[in-house]
Amino acid sequence: MKLRNNSSLHKLFYGLNRTGASLLIDALQKNGINNLYGVVGIPITDLARLAELRGMKYYGFRREDSAVDAAAAAGFLTKKPGVAMTVSAPGFLNGLTALAQATKNCFPLIMISGSSERHIIDLAQGDYEGLDQYNVAKPFCKKAYRVDRAQDVGLAVARAIRTAVSGRPGGVYLDLPADTIAQLNDDLGEKNMGVYKLVDPAPLQEPSDDAINRAVDIIKQAKKPLIILGKGAAYDRTEKQVQELINKTDIPFLPMSMAKGLVPDDDKHSAAAARSLSLKNADVVILIGARLNLMLSYGDAPQFNPEAKFIQLDIDATQFDSAQKISAPLQGDLTSILNKLVPALTATGYKVPSDWLDAIAQDTAKNDAKFAKRIKAGETNPEFGYYGAIEPINDYFQEHPDTYLVSEGANTLDIGRDMIGMKLPRHRLDTGTWGVMGVGMGYAIATAVETGKHVVALDGDSAFGFDGMDVEIMCRYNLPITVVVINNGGIYNGVDNVVPDQLGPTTLDPTGRYDLIAKAFGGDNYYVTNYQEMKDTFATAVESGRPSIINVQIDPSMGKESGHIGNLNPELNLKPLEEAEQKKIDKE
């Protein structure tokens, strides 16, 4: 029986094609979005099935926050909004943290949630998982939209995509009531049923000539300039322009964590190992896709030279003067700014004074020597720790730079950032602006899906606990991800037992075999306890191309409070109480 000869089947498909669900899928595909990340249930299960039948790839997660994190990472890697789907109310709320984080990190994302019907919600009649999701989402994203009519689905998708990628990228929430999913678009006058491909969703924005000339005049007078690269520069694919700027002027650069690799970390202009010296002494600081937030001490003294002049390149003018006076604001997309700034500056013949470069080089050599001793000691230290565990990972990345790294934790994140050199842009993702734990597996899964490359997820044992069940997902889809869990048995470390009959608040299981989670789902598992075992194991695990976990058992004493940001954790004088507890023990 042929479809064209069966009028009932023809009517069935004709009706299905006009549903809100079908129009949503058509609109996404027409705009080049073919991957969905999510958790299904009422009312979106058949929507996900239809997406697969229409040729989309759906990746099912175990929790909504991980699914939304995955979509956010996809947005960062592709410059197209990643799309995540959640069920209503609890599922929506589970995804909300990731939606907010994507917005803070400037990752383009569309989170679509099924929802209960408006007429029941507004009268508080107690619908299934009833929640006014549209209004709840508003503070946590760039924009929220609700689609009450199937005929508006194409327009809603277009607005969501443009909002997510234009200007400062971020998260968008799209509320999809159950009735809209099944509703038919009865506007027979529209041949395309309101679905269309956007024209120039993120228009380029060039700065004025006056703004460029102002910046050039300031840089020309600089004796000790410094470029700070942020993840915005990586997102906007500025590596060619940035490398040209640095190579032609010799201005040293300092990369933020997700900007590592925009210029190779081993480039001679890197000031990463001389961070303190370069920040304290720079007289002109050029911010490219970086913000003067907590991660840069807000540009304040004593970390920064109080007399420094700031030049900031950013798509969003509200970022200027947010913490310091910006002497030369350059608003526009970073590529357009650099396309004007680089030739204008290099035409002046400007070169950095050699004494500034010499000072950075000397400080770099001194600090590198200290760091090398620390790493070398980690190879043989009887108390196996972070340096011995991470050195083999760095060795592998230097030989295989087209490997992706996702990292989270406190000490694991901080020490890994310092140790693992990146040579290619957008090959490192981590906890970002807020430092949120639990992003690692979602980011890693999306990275493997979107790039098809090997991914290493480097986690502390505490961080891994937030999303460890996602190992089942990487095994289910047979993704080339190697998870490295640095296990010291605690949050920060595993030796915080101040009251004899209680486990300390930062204590976890120091003997936990996280690697066996991979085995449970058909992946590969490895257990290492020293540098040589890690060296022998790591490359084998990654190059197998199979999902795997390496449990790296380090000494529970390794790790300091809050990693590199321990100053943010208020300290209370607990010594008298601790001494009193010890006296009780002595009496017993």
Structural overview:
The protein is α/β, with parallel strands linked by helices and 588 residues long. The chain contains 23 helices and 17 strands. Strands 2-1-3-4-6-5 form a six-stranded parallel beta sheet, with helices on both faces. Strands 13-12-14-15-17-16 form a six-stranded parallel beta sheet, sandwiched between helices. The protein has a five-stranded parallel beta sheet with strand order 8-7-9-10-11, with helices on both faces. Helix 4 crosses helix 18 and helix 10 packs across helix 14. The mean pLDDT is 93.
Task: Summarize the topology.
Blueprint: H1 7-17, H2 20-30, E1 35-38, H3 45-53, E2 57-60, H4 64-78, E3 82-86, H5 90-105, E4 109-115, H6 118-122, H7 133-137, E5 143-146, H8 153-165, E6 171-177, H9 178-182, H10 209-220, E7 225-229, H11 231-235, H12 239-249, E8 253-255, H13 275-281, E9 284-288, E10 309-314, E11 326-331, H14 334-346, H15 354-380, H16 386-399, E12 404-408, H17 411-419, E13 428-429, H18 440-451, E14 455-460, H19 461-467, H20 471-476, E15 481-487, H21 515-520, E16 524-528, H22 531-543, E17 548-553, H23 575-587
Parallel strand pairs: 1-2, 1-3, 3-4, 4-6, 5-6, 7-8, 7-9, 9-10, 10-11, 12-13, 12-14, 14-15, 15-17, 16-17
Helix pairs in contact: 2-8, 4-5, 4-18, 10-14, 12-14, 15-16, 16-17, 16-22
